[in-house]
Amino acid sequence: MFRIIQKERLASTITKFVVHAPYIAPKRRPGNFAIIRVVESGERIPLTLVDSDPVAGTITLIVQAIGKTTQLLCSLQEGDSLRDVVGPLGTPTPIENHGSVACVGGGVGTAVIYPIARGLREAGNNVYSIIGGRTSELVILEQEMARVSNRVITTTDDGSLGRKGIVTDPLREMLDDRSLGISAVYAIGPLPMMKAVSNLTRNYGVPTFVSLNAIMVDGTGMCGGCRVTVDGTMKFACVDGPEFDGHKVDFDELIMRNRSYTELERLAHQRYLQTTLPEHA
Amino acid sequence: MSAFNSLKPSERMKIPRQGSLEQNAGERKGNFLEVSFGFNEERAQIEAARCLECTNPVCTEGCPVGIDIRSFVQRILMKDYAGAVQTIRQANSLPAICGRVCPQEEQCEAVCTLGKKHEPVAIGKLERFVADYEMTHNLFSPPMVETKRDEKVAIVGSGPAGLTCAAELSKIGYKVTLFEALHAVGGVLRYGIPEFRLPRTILDLEAERIKAMGVEIITNFLVGRTATVDELMDEWGFSAVFLGTGAGTPHFLGIPGEGLTGVYSANEFLTRVNLMKAYQFPDYDTPIRLGKNVAVIGGGNTAMDAVRTARRLGAERAVLVYRRSRQEMPARLEEVHHAEEEGIEFLMLTNPLRIIGDEHHVVTSLECQRMELGEPDDSGRRKPIPVAGSEFSIAVDTVIEAIGQQPNPIIQSTTSGLKTGKRGVIITDDRQQTSRPGVFAGGDLSRGGATVILAMRDGKQAANSIHTYLQSVQLSTVDITDSMTG
Ligand SMILES: Cc1cc2nc3c(=O)[nH]c(=O)nc-3n(C[C@H](O)[C@H](O)[C@H](O)COP(=O)(O)OP(=O)(O)OC[C@H]3O[C@@H](n4cnc5c(N)ncnc54)[C@H](O)[C@@H]3O)c2cc1C
Ligand SMILES: Cc1cc2nc3c(=O)[nH]c(=O)nc-3n(C[C@H](O)[C@H](O)[C@H](O)COP(=O)(O)OP(=O)(O)OC[C@H]3O[C@@H](n4cnc5c(N)ncnc54)[C@H](O)[C@@H]3O)c2cc1C
Ligand code: SF4
Ligand code: SF4
Ligand code: FES
Hints:
The structure holds 2 protein chains of 2 kinds. Chain A is built from 8 helices and 17 strands. Chain A is an alpha/beta fold. Chain A folds into 2 domains: about 1-90, Translation factors (Elongation Factor Tu (Ef-tu), domain 3), CATH 2.40.30.10; about 100-210, Rossmann fold, CATH 3.40.50.80. In chain A, the strands form 4 sheets. Chain A has a 7-stranded mixed beta sheet, sandwiched between helices. A 5-stranded antiparallel beta sheet of chain A has the order 5-6-2-1-7. In chain A, α4 (about 170-175) runs parallel beside α5. The longest helix of chain A has 15 residues, at about 260-275. The two termini of chain A are about 30 Å apart. In chain B, a hairpin with a 5-residue loop joins β13 and β14 (about 380-385). The longest helix of chain B has about 35 residues, at about 450-485. Chain B is globular and about 65 Å long. The N and C termini of chain B lie far apart (about 55 Å). The interface of A and B includes residues 23, 27, 256 and 268 of A. The structure holds flavin-adenine dinucleotide (2 copies), iron/sulfur cluster (2 copies) and FE2/S2 (inorganic) cluster.
């Protein structure tokens, strides 16, 4: 059992947890994730290891409640425990000094990119960050990102915070601004966003890394459920990734595959709401 | 050998081989309860009476762990069931499991003397009978440990190889820690072989027994990532390591359409159902997406388990697509027979060419090609050759690929000095020692895909080798200190 040491609400649907996981904490690298199971009857889901404290033996997770499992998780309190946590999984992000990089986070993807941005900064890069969300509520970790970036631009679809529009607008301006000398882009967020960023940067010939949120079960390379097509070949996102060259990813296939369980997920979610919140019945 | 059996050999040979009681096919294709009920006492008695009590019991040679079959069968006849199970346990610590899933027809029963002219003694079913008897009558007591030893040994992977190695080492007195990547122990026994062949209560019981012997079990620990083998030895204080991580990485055909929704590897399909209990969705949260027309590609145990599982989940048409003929199918005979009874269709000499989907990227059909058999290939089986112009397609909404697995590379790529061979298997000598001193390996990881009983044999052999190794290490350190003080 993995005890929740601290819980903090970052936005109405986004919650940060500090969880006791002494084996994982000292081994975490930027880009790693964990697979968790909240309860015995629960699903195994991947969550990024946003941070860790090797001395305290804790890891930090940031979760957006979107379906049954993430909602159940977000309903837990300090002192409660997660049934299972395994990690660190995935290939860590190769952190190098590119000179200047752009880090683009969309929604809860900002939580995933934060440890990478920090790693890149610590490696001596100039870090220019863009964080976006549909609305101000969904823009998270602004201060944390500011601490590890030379500059942070926020965007919202509805203009409720920062610039109105999508993340690719300021990214295009950054790429056009030769004085910044951006030589690599890291983009993590919803698949359509990563696809749009990759399409944009392709024109500039700037290497782009994206983190693929394929549906996972074991997270160890055993089931093949997380397979994605990169450069025409099959890769397992949980072990070969989750980061890949955005210019080579078949986004359309992944977008379709991630819809595999939409109907069943809705069913599970509705049932969860009905049993936990009677007013929804 | 004095005869316990009052019947003359000629009389014994007249007794027909006993079939086991089974859930009827119509009912069982709708549930996940065990198909075979095994023998009741009456049938076990009749079957045991068939054994010829050979002076040269060749059956034992056919068993990879060398169970003294003749004497356990005799004890059944004497109604000394506790004695029978003890006889088995001297060689095999998981009899309830082997009695159910061992390919007996290729091992002990294949060489049984009675089988030369008649049908062999049903050794597997008898083994299962006594193991179940032990369970229902609570006869099990953990073995005595002679001496406590200080050295710690790490076991990686909790499949039959790891479980056996852990049990054997703790019997010798070592401090044993078993690391498992998943949240539950058992390996393929847990996530691959379905409940209708191996009830989970049996597996849970075995796990409890291993714990009762003092083995520490740490789940959710992926060796290579959570800690490497080097770290376990250098920092965690383990004096030896046994690797039993199996062959878990699935192969795919590499045909067009494998990225479509509705295409599964058998591993994913079976893991969702067995480990995650997707058949109880939404009481369990993990979903499975299964249509009415399911094609399973392959001809081994895995394919058979997948297709029979699909049937139980409600597939109206469940088709097994295999590129060779029935004779070459590696699946166990009993399973093929059960599958037929459950209404599984067999599409033999058929090779898939591509999977076709609709505009939503969901599978709609499988395009295939007929094959014919040519000359034998490297595997000794006749090689399938495509028949030109024989393309056809079958309408399906789910495709499950069960065409083989290979070892997961995580450990190999994070451990120094481990030699690997073809398809990533770890190379060991016949005592299960790897190229790295103190590191031993066995089961599917070194064999590249074998059987439960062979994995157990390796685990047991490795335990003995580890014991020898640790004693020699101790001796050599004593030598050094002696020479230093003296
Ligand atoms: C490597 C990786 C890192 C991730 N990191 C984070 C993170 O730090 N914070 C965060 O909030 N989310 C993260 N996610 C996404 C998170 O795993 C999903 O939001 C979660 O699984 C949804 O589960 P649910 O039951 O709440 O929702 P559901 O209603 O079941 O599903 C909603 C959507 O989530 C996705 N999903 C469902 N089940 C899985 C699964 N088993 N594996 C992966 N995706 C699934 C599907 O696209 C689905 O349509 C990450 C995903 C991956 C692959
Ligand atoms: C569907 C199916 C049906 C089968 N049916 C039969 C049958 O009827 N009869 C028969 O005799 N054989 C059968 N087999 C084959 C048999 O199950 C295997 O030969 C046997 O389980 C191998 O045992 P093992 O201990 O080597 O590995 P496995 O059973 O594969 O166990 C390996 C374990 O190691 C864990 N692991 C992997 N990597 C790591 C790591 N890095 N760190 C920690 N843990 C790790 C895995 O999660 C797993 O739990 C079947 C196989 C399948 C897939
Ligand atoms: S363990 Fe397997 S091979 Fe050995 S006697 Fe039992 S069924 Fe036969
Ligand atoms: S070979 Fe067959 S008949 Fe002979 S002892 Fe063994 S089981 Fe009995
Ligand atoms: S999640 Fe199973 S192989 Fe990646």
